[in-house]
Write a structure and sequence with these properties.
This protein is of the alpha+beta class and about 250 residues long. It is about 45% helix and about 10% strand. The protein has eight helices and seven strands, in the order αβββαβααβαββααα.
Length: about 250
């Protein structure tokens, strides 16, 4: 069973990841949600509703818990699970390796999905994390609809496959990870890669890095946990400084 402390700690981590993505402008208005799989199989998720805070201002009080079938386990006035809860539940069914899911609406990756323009491996040592993310594949879910049913959720999870990120045509992105921090970082890195590809095309014809360099960086495997932790500390501090200035 989940200890009483686990949902509280999960809510804090989910809210922090929401604030980071909101601070970076990687979603529209209050749109988007982040979830975390708890030890007993329930799911903590950023809620929606008339009392919600947008991602930029999310707090632990914006997080609710649902059963694996989507039945609310906890609630708060003016808050309920997001309509696209099906995204999260489908990924957890399909991917035992995943313990966090992010769904947001970042502008630049959405543009690439709309235009069927491939994201090229134009960087190497500039950001090995982003290159490894790209090497895992960035598929596109072709349905530009709200994913509100188990069937649509399963469709999207099948497109995601074993990857870490999935574009959703005319909609947004879904990213996954072993923690809310890693899943949020995957959104950040995908967005930065899309921005680099976009700006490179403004200058001319982007030239991917060499095959040997690509294979050397990708071949080292998954980005080390300590580097993920270091990157996340930076973004957490950035979000906190932004809140203080506001």
């Amino acid at each position: 069973m989940t200890s009483t402390a686990e949902p509280v700690a999960a809510a804090e981590r989910i809210a922090a990841a929401c604030r980071v993505l909101g601070r970076l402008g990687l979603t529209r208005e209050p749109a988007g949600h982040i979830s975390m799989l708890l030890a007993d199989g329930t799911v903590a998720i950023k809620a929606r509703g008339p009392s919600e805070s947008g991602l930029r201002f999310a707090g632990a009080e914006d997080v609710v818990v649902v059963d694996p079938d989507g039945t609310p386990r906890s609630s708060a006035p003016g808050l309920e699970p997001p309509r696209e809860l099906a995204i999260h539940l489908a990924v957890y069914r399909a991917r035992p390796d995943v313990t966090s899911v992010v769904h947001v609406h970042p502008l630049m990756p959405v543009l690439f999905g709309i235009c069927d323009v491939p994201l090229l491996p134009v960087i190497g040592a500039y950001d090995p994390y982003a290159l490894r993310l790209l090497a895992r594949g960035v598929p596109t879910f072709e349905r530009s609809v709200l994913v509100t049913t188990p069937e649509l959720g399963d469709e999207m999870a099948a497109v995601l496959g074993t990857g870490a990120v999935c574009l959703m045509r005319g909609h947004g992105v879904t990213a996954v990870g072993a923690s809310p921090e890693e899943a949020a970082l995957n959104v950040i890195k995908l967005s930065e890669l899309a921005e680099l590809n976009y700006r490179a095309r403004l200058l001319g014809e982007p030239r991917p890095i060499g095959k040997a360099e690509y294979e050397e960086i990708v071949g080292t495997g998954r980005t080390r946990p300590e580097l993920i932790d270091s990157a996340w500390r930076f973004y957490r501090r950035l979000a906190e400084e932004g809140a203080e200035e506001g």
